[in-house]
Design brief:
Number of strands: 7
Distance between the termini: 41 Å
Shape: globular
Radius of gyration: 16 Å
Order of helices and strands: HEHEEHEEHEEHH
Strand order of the largest sheet: 1-3-2-4-5
Strand content: 25-35%
Number of helices: 6
């Protein structure tokens, strides 16, 4: 799959859509970045994490782009001479277990639309949580932690980064109230 995306990115600028940790930890230099919105997808804390933000005994959660609605985030343009290296690092980071479905999504920016790489999650994935009650979020926020830290820290970092980019995510704000 990586080779397919490398081939598709070879004759165009590589843009990457950040909607969660890519906002506050992109791990690559961008030639430019713009606030953007993707239609037909929304950010949701509905993907199980049994390594990075949780454990097999106490699974945590990470964000995914799920079908429906819209999502505000940031698109980053990668320098052409860095495309292969950035794709390789993104795959190592986002695709070690092949959970996400990498997709080219149209991102609307004030400068016009761009086609960007985004990591989406089908609802048919075993990593999709489905509906979780408030009590489950409370328990995960209190207990789940993995190699990169806790679910609650990850959710708060994403929320603060969204605010720093001028994005207010009401759904995430409501979820974070379960941590109190």
């Amino acid at each position: 799959m990586l080779e397919r995306f490398r081939a598709e990115a070879a004759d165009q600028d590589l843009w990457v859509f950040g909607y969660a940790s890519l906002l506050w930890r992109p791990e690559f230099d961008a030639q430019e970045q713009h606030a953007s919105r993707v239609w037909g997808w929304h950010r949701a804390l509905k993907m199980w994490s049994r390594l990075n933000r949780g454990s097999p005994e106490c699974p945590g959660l990470v964000f995914a782009l799920l079908p429906g609605g819209s999502c505000q985030g940031v698109v980053y343009r990668v320098a052409p001479n860095e495309t292969d290296e950035v794709l390789r690092r993104l795959w190592a980071r986002e695709m070690p277990m092949d959970v996400y479905t990498p997709s080219w999504l149209t991102c609307q920016t004030a400068q016009g639309p761009v086609k960007a790489l985004a990591f989406t999650l089908p609802r048919s994935s075993p990593s999709f949580t489905g509906h979780l009650p408030a009590e489950t979020y409370r328990q995960i926020f209190q207990q789940a932690s993995g190699r990169f830290g806790s679910t609650i820290d990850y959710a708060r970092q994403t929320y603060e980064s969204l605010k720093a980019h001028g994005i207010h995510d009401r759904a995430l704000a409501a979820l974070l109230r379960h941590a109190d």
